[in-house]
Task: inverse folding
């Protein structure tokens, strides 16, 4: 908001999502604090509050609201938060990370994919879901440690593995809720 006239200003071109959400630029975030900040910003910036304002302010409100939602979703989830931290440090995950992953890990992913592809495997879905959650928790601990040691290359490797498991989670979710 403009301090003089109190009108809403446009969001910056590339705002730091950590600053926007009043979080330290760290892999560890206080989820409760993040949630409170999200609600506070949404209350202040939600487009419904700007119905009687100028069209420009309504547009800025929509832009801010979208940005706050993006920031919240990015920082809430470990995978997207880690990828964002890498991005802030000028590091991108390769689109095809198969060459970076070890063969044992790739075999594990293939086996889980095969189990998911089996017809009539409802009895295995709970087992697969438990396995995926355990792996994601383990990988989250590993990436937390890597970021705390400021080992961005190790964090990149672990995040690539987390991405594989996120894809498996999506496949599992789609399998459990057929369209």
Result:
């Amino acid at each position: 908001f403009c301090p003089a006239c109190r009108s809403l200003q446009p969001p910056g071109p590339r705002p730091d999502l950590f600053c926007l959400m009043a979080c330290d630029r760290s892999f560890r975030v206080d989820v409760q604090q993040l949630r409170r900040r999200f609600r506070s910003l949404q209350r202040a910036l939600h487009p419904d509050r700007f119905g009687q304002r100028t069209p420009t302010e309504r547009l800025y409100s929509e832009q801010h609201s979208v940005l706050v939602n993006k920031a919240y979703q990015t920082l809430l989830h470990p995978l997207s938060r880690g990828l964002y931290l890498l991005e802030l440090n000028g590091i991108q995950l390769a689109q095809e990370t198969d060459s970076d992953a070890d063969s044992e890990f790739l075999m594990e992913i293939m086996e889980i994919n095969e189990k998911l592809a089996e017809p009539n495997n409802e009895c295995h879905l709970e087992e697969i879901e438990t396995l995926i959650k355990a792996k994601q928790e383990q990988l989250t601990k590993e990436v937390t440690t890597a970021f705390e040691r400021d080992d961005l290359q190790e964090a990149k490797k672990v995040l690539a593995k987390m991405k594989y498991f996120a894809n498996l989670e999506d496949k599992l979710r789609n399998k459990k809720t057929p369209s």
